[in-house]
Amino acid sequence: MNVGILGAGAVGRALASLIAAGGHDVVVGVRQPDSEPADAVAGRLDTIDAAVAHGAVVILAVPYAACASLLPPLAAALAGKIVVDVTNALQADWSPISLGEDSSAGEEVARLLPSSRVVTAFNTIFADVMSPQGIDRDGQSITAFVASDDDDASAQIANLAGDAGFAPLVVGPLRMARHLEAMAHLNIHLAVALGRGTDGAFLYR
Hints:
By secondary structure, this protein is α/β, with parallel strands linked by helices. The protein contains eight helices and ten strands.
């Protein structure tokens, strides 16, 4: 599968490595590819537009705060594509941005991209554990939860997560992103506020 990843931060780089190792063709898009070392990511480093054009699946590995300006100009190019939202609504200090009880980052992305097939996935997983060693917990892979209103998109992203080494679990429609993001906020609270570090992960048996 052709996969575009928007963003070459810690999450974007880690997912690119895992997904490429799983046999997929990855292009990582950034605003200024010439300013990034070519060996910084698995796959090919290129512009955001090139990554969007390349991917049948496009993964948003950018801060949630960037989506409002980044996505509307890309809406036409992303129409019909599976767009995977990895974001959580966070302030710069990792504290939550309140979106109310009837929304989530995933649902806000879907509003910005009404013609895309939006999926929330990977948002409960720290970049620090997105490696073969970090995923494997005594023989069990950490869980990658998947939520979307499009059942086929959910199935495709569950397969992609499995190829990347995770244990995928489809949890239902996109509104389940509200609960997944609450889990992510809990994970961040444990890691940051309580000092437990970013090697924690969810395993659903």
